From TrEMBL, chain A:
Organism: Megalurothrips usitatus (bean blossom thrips)
InterPro entries: Sec13/Seh1_fam, WD40/YVTN_repeat-like_dom_sf, WD40_repeat_dom_sf, WD40_rpt
Gene Ontology biological-process annotations: COPII-coated vesicle budding; mRNA transport; positive regulation of TOR signaling; protein exit from endoplasmic reticulum; protein import into nucleus
Keyword line: Lysosome, mRNA transport, Nuclear pore complex, Nucleus, Protein transport, Repeat, Translocation, Transport, WD repeat
Keyword field contains Coiled coil: no
GO molecular function: structural molecule activity
Family as reported in the entry's similarity comment: Belongs to the WD repeat SEC13 family.
A GO CC annotation given for this chain: COPII vesicle coat
Protein name: Protein SEC13 homolog
UniProt WD repeat ranges: 9-50, 53-87, 99-131, 208-243, 256-287
Pfam family, one: WD40
Subcellular location as annotated: Lysosome; Nucleus, Nuclear pore complex
Gene3D superfamilies: YVTN repeat-like/Quinoprotein amine dehydrogenase
TrEMBL record, chain B:
Species per Swiss-Prot/TrEMBL record: Megalurothrips usitatus (bean blossom thrips)
Gene3D superfamilies documented for this protein: YVTN repeat-like/Quinoprotein amine dehydrogenase
Residue ranges of every copy of the RWD domain listed in the record: 461-563
Name of the protein in its database record: RWD domain-containing protein
InterPro entries with a match to the protein in the record: RWD_dom (IPR006575), WD40/YVTN_repeat-like_dom_sf (IPR015943), WD40_repeat_CS (IPR019775), WD40_repeat_dom_sf (IPR036322), WD40_rpt (IPR001680), WDR59-like (IPR049567), WDR59_mRING-H2-C3H3C2 (IPR039456), WDR59_RTC1-like_RING_Znf (IPR049566)
WD repeats: 101-143, 187-229
Origin superkingdom: Eukaryota
């Protein structure tokens, strides 16, 4: 079902911690313990290194591409407590903004849905979440912090899609309500928290408690308009939990699976129906909800097939 | 505080035992060594190497062992083995099994005898139960405590007979035996796993925990929220035990973690900054240690240790060591060791001790302290020599009597008072360099008081404590006297022969000098680069008075590898030696501090998968090595970065020292061991030499995941959207779907085509086609089905097909005109638009009743003229508000005006289209995207600029539409030609009159006053407003 398109030898000198392709799937950004971020052009099974961004002084944990309507922007976050926003000008990449107000490693960065403008959320081990907003007129960045979002530390952030589902029903009022910004975060307090912007403050809207160990990653599923919010969270307790809600206030949890090792990455497909899960066992598995509302693994039968080995993977 | 060093005074090797548990009995006479194959009892008071060996028929290792601490049952000994606890009895030189306690369902992780009741034994297991056994009835546990989490340690309180503590991962639970249903206190002690637990022998409420996070925490159980004290070490701590004297604590590192650091550290609880003493000697990690009294009335203690190097060592704890822990055997008052040290030169008692020690020291030719208890032949002796090697410089075989003779105690110890120890060892390495009088060395000690606990003091010590197992490094010569060493480093075909000379003042702000020797194979430019790296590394260390040999060598290896890697690639990638280009403020934070901080930082992801772009799945992971050795289910990846130990050093060269990759090959080593030996005691495992292979870099794999999705790029390219001919569109798209073998879609499109071509219904049938089960509801359920399946392509396409195409200018106006025209046009035909009551307002106006007629925009022109004044721009749902006085009309309009799709769901359907447009955008199909966007009921983006709003001249109500909502007059009417203005217009800002720009221009070419005759001199007035 899934075929290998490219094997990119990144040339990183140490472990890779994140890799993401841009909106069109034409470029790949990777980041590594060797403190660098690399950008590759991917075309027809070949790749060329177009940039090797050095600016972090510690392992780089995560990268994120912005929506192309803002240009080619890439955000990266690192152990060195910094968030750097890189921009491509012509063929050159340069730092456009560096944010260094966190007191500990920054573990996660995520761009807001483009409808809101150019906004970046960052989660740090100092427990706080920062929201950096770009003002297009001035070109400046304004930072707002949610201090103490998670005690001990925040490990992951993810944005709610801009089209909130429950608005789809308020169709009698022809005017669309202003979109509400929401964030989901996961942290070392074993909690998943949902935040909502109210005026100029971010308030905690819901606190989801099921995990029994650190939450490693959270992902808000993209919406196709269905009146339902879905969030996936994964944790050190080796579980992946799917959270669903019709009103963003009461959430139901469903434990997808308990894996063999800690799970540290969940990612939704574009339409939010397939979930990719990976963790400490070096495996990737894909999950889909069937018509009975049960989540089933769709990438074959045995573990070995999901193994990220050498490049041969058949599913 | 300076670190003292000492060596053991008795060593016995028992290689054949392969024991991994040890226990000392109540009397201190017997030591039990337990392994998988043998149990052995050794009498410590006998000066022979005789062992009482009992073979054991078990395929399981012994996990924990303990003798009964009560004199009445001192012969009993408990062992844990897999799921059982065996109770053995040692009587008359015979070891026999008394009981086998079976109730645990998983491996028993720890056992502990009750401190006062000789019949009680507690055992804990990862099956989450803690069982308390009574020896009088061993068929089942006397009591079972159920914890939610599996527990790794259990300890009875040493003073209170009801209290016991258990460790569960990073937490401590305290139980009261009388109230066994739930823990009475819960302590969130550590973020990482707790390896060891111990109650204070002096205070009922005090508890020490040792953890993977490299700390030992002291808790007062009456205040469980906060640790009373924290001892920070650089490495994960396996055990921390209180000393039976004073307020001391002894710690050892986790067995499997790291080779090279095998010492036991003695701490004074009142001085948590650094250990007060180090017991050096084991060549591998210490597995177990216990205390014994030398004899019952003496206050002397001995520390008995069993290491993975299969040697049993006994360390005499001298009174001065006890004093360091605040214990004063001779005096009633307890001296704080800090005071003791501070007073060192002034304190006559102390200095006389030093003098005495130095005296003894010289007398006994320095090393003196190592005694061979055992050993039958010379080969073992030489082995011993090489094993304990550089620490102990001479052996005295004849010293058995000396060793046990208490009066000789002062001399038997290597680590003397600070002055003595320093003088002694430095005199060995270098006759004069750092040697000084006692006062001198005392002050030096204070100068270096900030040093890390494991910091060696002399070159001799640095050499001896260096980890010689660095990959690719061979130590050719180490000459502490000449202060020179030479090393051969080879990596990827390059060889570097390096001679390092250490100046006398090294390491105090004086770096060693590096010199490349004959045989070095790198070119001069690389040489200078390497030299720079070495110098930089050394500088960084010695600036803090730290030794630098090992970091330098590791750095050299790393640089050399990079060098060759970059040469291997091509010149495109620049040679990147890890040189910090700019210091950052936190770079200088000490290792310990950093490691402590890392406890909150999650362990780095080393694999992942992300959906990106339109249908790509980007995966990355570790090298395929792990495939062969899949992780054991018990062994999970640690959660925090601190598990890597040491801490990462952003930007500094020591970064390579501990990185995730190093963790991974270590882990593999562990895993192999665990697998080979069954479930438990992984942490006490025997030597499994890890082969440090360089973790190969894994590539990033990009998969095409689009077959997983129901939408298809080819369909996106080929689908057509045509609202003029819905049937044709559906048929065409059905054919397109057939080309990509999507029969389900062919079926759906065919059905859609049928629905669109509304069948000739019976004119008398009162139900409009849209309300027919096969009409709107079918289409809507189809859309809902596809949306639920996440086939956003099909859902959006159906939405487009059956929704009116928006006329990007003014959707609302268009829609209202549309629905009115529909009414008008359908009424005469009377076919499927039933009209309860009809509408008197609708003049019959026969139109073409072609299928798509109702959504054909041109109909606008053919509309009935009876409402001509309100023709333009009435929103369908505003019809209601306006109210024509005919409610039946409104009802009629609201119920059946709409097409195939329920208007209530417009937003939802728009969302489908938006998402599909986004998918098309990602595919780069911009034309197709634009087509879809045309069908959005609202424009793609809300206009946010300046908007022109007209105010009705008659009722002063602003309206953005062509007519006033109140009076229905045209809101902007040209004062010259009296028709509504579309297009360019100009209005006087004062009187509000205006009209077509062209007309106004012509008028004001000649006139200055308003054409209406209102008397306003528009040109003048307007300009005065604009330019005041």
């Amino acid at each position: 079902m899934v075929s290998l398109l490219n094997t990119v030898d990144t040339g990183h000198e140490d472990m890779i911690h994140d890799a993401e392709m841009d909106y069109y799937g034409l470029r790949l950004a990777t980041c590594s313990s060797d403190n660098s971020v690399k950008i590759f052009d991917i075309k027809n099974g070949t790749q060329t290194l177009t940039a090797d961004l050095k600016g972090h002084y510690g392992p780089v944990w995560q990268v994120a591409w912005s929506h192309p309507k803002f240009g080619n922007l890439l955000a990266s976050c690192s152990y060195d407590r910094k968030v750097i926003i890189w921009k491509e000008n012509g063929t050159e990449w340069s730092k456009v903004y560096e944010y260094s107000s966190h007191d500990s490693s920054v573990n996660s960065v995520a761009w807001a849905p483009h409808e809101f403008g150019l906004i970046l959320a960052c989660g740090s081990s100092d427990g706080s979440v920062s929201i950096l907003t770009n003002s297009p007129e001035l070109g400046t960045w304004e930072a707002r912090k949610i201090p103490g979002a998670h005690t001990i530390g925040c490990n992951a952030v993810s944005w709610c899609p801009a089209a909130t589902p429950n608005q789809a029903f308020d169709s009698n009022t022809k005017e669309r309500q202003p979109l509400v910004k929401r964030l989901v975060t996961g942290g070392c307090d074993n909690l998943v928290k949902i935040w909502k912007e109210e005026g100029d403050r971010w308030v905690e809207e819901a606190k989801l408690e099921v995990h029994s160990d650190w939450v490693r990653d959270v992902a808000w599923a993209p919406s196709i308009g269905l009146p339902r919010s879905t969030i996936a969270s994964c944790s050190q307790d080796r579980r992946v939990v799917i959270w669903t809600s019709d009103d963003n206030i009461t959430w139901n949890s469903y434990t997808l699976h308990t894996f063999d090792d800690v799970v540290w990455n969940v990612s939704w497909s574009l339409t939010g129906n397939i979930l990719a899960v990976s963790g400490g066992d070096n495996n990737v598995s894909l999950w889909r909800e069937n018509n009975e509302g049960q989540w089933i693994r769709i990438d074959g039968k045995s573990k070995e097939q999901g193994q990220l080995a050498g490049g041969e993977r058949e599913m | 505080m300076a670190t003292r060093w000492s060596s053991e005074y008795i060593v016995a090797e028992h290689r054949d035992l392969q024991a991994n548990a040890m226990a000392v009995d109540y009397t201190g006479n017997y030591v039990l060594l337990a392994g998988r194959r043998y149990l052995a009892i050794k009498n410590l008071n006998e000066q022979s190497d005789r062992l009482h060996k009992v073979p054991r028929q078990s395929k399981y290792e012994v996990g924990a062992a303990e003798w009964n601490p009560n004199p009445s049952h001192k012969e009993l000994c408990a062992l844990s083995s897999n799921q059982r606890v065996e109770v053995l009895s040692w009587q008359n030189g015979d070891l026999e099994q008394r009981h086998s306690l079976k109730s645990h369902t998983r491996v028993v992780s720890d056992v502990n005898w009750h401190r006062f009741d000789p019949n009680l034994l507690a055992s804990c297991s990862i099956d989450t139960f803690i069982h308390v056994w009574d020896m009088r009835d061993t068929r089942r546990p006397a009591q079972s405590l159920s914890a939610v989490a599996g527990s790794t340690q259990v300890r009875w309180n040493r003073l209170s007979s009801f209290l016991l503590a258990t460790a569960h991962d990073g937490d401590i639970k305290l139980w009261d035996q009388r109230k066994g249903t739930a823990p009475v206190v819960y302590i969130s002690a550590h973020l990482a796993k707790i390896h060891g637990l111990d109650w204070s022998p002096l205070h009922e409420d005090q508890l020490a925990t040792s953890s993977q996070d490299g700390t030992v925490k002291l808790f007062d159980i009456t205040n469980p929220r906060k640790a009373e004290g924290v001892l920070t070490t650089t490495l994960p701590v396996w055990r921390a035990r209180y000393t039976p004297f004073g307020e001391g604590l002894v710690t050892v590192v986790v067995p499997q973690l790291r080779r090279g650091e095998n010492s036991l550290l003695l701490w004074n609880i009142n001085n948590q900054a650094a250990p007060v003493h180090t017991f050096v000697g084991h060549t591998d990690v210490v597995l177990e240690f216990e205390w014994r009294r030398v004899n019952h009335d003496s206050s002397d203690f001995e520390l008995i240790t069993w290491s993975r190097d299969q040697s049993l060592r006994i360390w005499r704890i001298e009174p001065f060591l006890q004093k360091l822990c605040g214990h004063e055997p001779d005096m009633d008052n307890v001296l704080d060791s800090q005071d003791l040290i501070d007073d060192l030169p002034q304190n006559p008692r102390e200095s006389s001790l030093n003098d005495y020690q130095r005296h003894r020291y010289n007398e006994h030719t320095m090393a003196h302290n190592l005694q061979q208890l055992t050993l039958d032949n010379a080969s073992v002796l030489s082995e011993m020599l090489s094993a304990s090697g550089r620490n102990s410089l001479s052996l005295s075989l004849d010293g058995t009597s000396e060793a046990t003779d208490d009066s000789q105690g002062g001399s038997v110890l290597g680590g003397l008072g600070s002055g003595g120890g320093r003088g002694g060892s430095s005199s060995l390495s270098n006759g004069s360099a750092t040697r000084g009088g006692s006062g001198d060395s005392g002050s030096e000690d204070r100068m270096q008081s900030v040093r890390s606990p494991t910091q060696p003091k002399t070159l001799q010590q640095e050499f001896s404590h260096m980890n010689l197992n660095i990959t690719n490094v061979d130590m050719d010569r180490m000459d502490p006297v000449g202060r020179v060493c030479s090393v051969t480093v080879s990596a990827n075909g390059h060889v570097v022969v390096l001679q390092i000379s250490f100046p006398a003042s090294y390491p105090f702000s004086t770096p060693p000098t590096f010199q490349f020797m004959q045989g070095t194979s790198v070119n001069p430019s690389s040489k200078s680069k390497l030299h720079k790296v070495l110098k930089h590394t050394a500088q960084q260390r010695v600036r803090k008075n730290r030794t630098c040999l090992e970091p330098c060598l590791r750095q050299l290896v790393a640089s050399l590898q990079q060098l060759s890697a970059s040469e291997d690639n091509d010149s495109k990638t620049t040679t990147f030696l890890r040189m910090p280009s700019q210091p950052s403020p936190y770079m200088d934070a000490s290792n310990m501090y950093r490691s402590y901080q890392d406890a909150n930082i999650p362990f780095p992801r080393t694999s992942g998968a992300k959906f990106s772009g339109a249908g790509a799945l980007v995966c990355f992971g570790r090298a395929p090595m792990t495939k062969r050795l899949p992780l054991h289910s018990e062994m999970w990846t640690p959660r925090s970065l601190s598990a890597l130990g040491g801490g990462w050093t952003p930007g500094t060269p020591t970064h390579t020292y501990t990185s995730v990759s190093s963790y991974y090959y270590q882990e593999r080593g562990q895993v192999s061991r665990v697998r080979s030996r069954g479930l438990h005691t992984s942490s006490r495992g025997l030597v499994g030499r890890m082969t440090p292979t360089r973790t190969t870099r894994a590539a990033v794999l990009i998969y095409d995941a689009s077959p997983l999705f129901l939408f298809h790029r080819e369909l996106g390219e080929k689908y057509i959207i045509s609202s003029h001919d819905v049937v044709g569109m559906c048929q065409r798209n059905a054919a397109v779907a057939a080309t990509v073998n999507r029969r389900d879609l062919v079926q759906a499109w065919t059905t859609a085509a049928l629905v669109a071509s509304n069948p000739e219904a019976d004119p008398d049938d009162g139900v409009p086609w849209t309300h027919h089960p096969f009409g709107r509801s079918l289409i809507e359920s189809m859309i809902a089905h596809f949306a639920h399946q996440s086939d956003i392509q099909m859902a959006a396409m159906l939405c487009c097909a059956f929704s009116p195409r928006s006329d990007n200018q003014d959707i609302n106006r268009f829609k209202s005109s549309l629905c009115k025209s529909v009414n008008v046009s359908r009424l005469p035909s009377g076919k499927w638009w039933s009209k309860p009551g009809g509408s008197p307002y609708h003049t019959i106006h026969p139109l073409d009743t072609s299928l798509e007629g109702w959504n054909y925009p041109l109909l606008k022109q053919n509309r009935s003229n009876s409402w001509s004044d309100s023709l333009e721009g009435l929103k369908a749902n505003e019809v209601r508000e306006v109210g024509y006085g005919d409610s039946s009309l409104n009802l009629f309009l609201s119920s059946s005006e709409k097409g195939m799709l329920d208007e209530k769901k417009t937003c939802l359907y728009d969302e489908y289209k938006r998402v599909y447009a986004d998918v098309l955008h990602r595919w780069g199909l911009l034309d197709a995207r634009a087509q879809v966007m045309k069908y959005m009921s609202s424009g793609p983006e809300v206009h946010r600029g300046v908007e022109f709003v007209a105010e009705c001249q008659h009722c002063c109500v602003t309206s953005s539409r062509a007519s006033c909502v109140d009076c229905k007059r045209l809101s902007l009417q040209c004062v010259i030609c009296h028709i509504s203005v579309r297009g360019p217009s100009n209005v006087c800002l004062v009187c509000g009159h205006g009209g077509h720009t062209l007309h106004m221009q012509t008028w004001f070419r000649k006139e200055t006053r308003c054409p209406t005759g209102c008397g306003c001199s528009c040109l003048v007035e307007s300009s005065s407003i604009i330019e005041p």
